[in-house]
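Sync notes, pocket subgroup
Present: LS, DG
LS reminded everyone that the earlier model was apo-only. Rerun requested with heme C included. Inputs:
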Amino acid sequence: MMKRILISIAALGLLGLQGIAVAGDPAEMSETCIECHEIDEFEGMSAEEIAAATTEANANSKQMAKATADLSAEDLQAIIDYIAAEANK
Ligand code: HEC
């Protein structure tokens, strides 16, 4: 019984991920960030906090501005949501 419920939840999760994958896979896109950052760096931060810190870092660091320049706002948000979820697992 419990197992069946878990499988259903897993299936829903997969559907959700596929929905996002159409716009660009956040897990794949986040690898750009991981070239300079570690997921653990963002542990304890909410997606909102990471987004605010990203905006600030973009203004203060040329490297960061360059790293995010080619990303649409939607893609960047998807990456940040993904990183927040991974960092706080
Ligand atoms: C070329 C290297 C590089 C890449 C790629 C990069 N960053 Fe950064 N990032 C930096 C540097 C340099 C800083 C400013 C110094 C610092 O705080 O470590 C920074 C700072 C940040 C901060 C603020 C850290 C804090 O604790 O306040 C966040 C959040 C962040 N980056 C998110 C991202 C995300 C999301 C991506 C991917 C879209 C990304 N970075 C890609 C170099 C990079």
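DG: Residues 27 and 82 are 7 Å apart (CA to CA).
LS: The pocket of heme C is lined by residues 32-33, 35-37, 50, 53-54, 57, 61, 63-64, 67-68, 79-80, 83 (CB under 6 Å).
Action: DG to write up.
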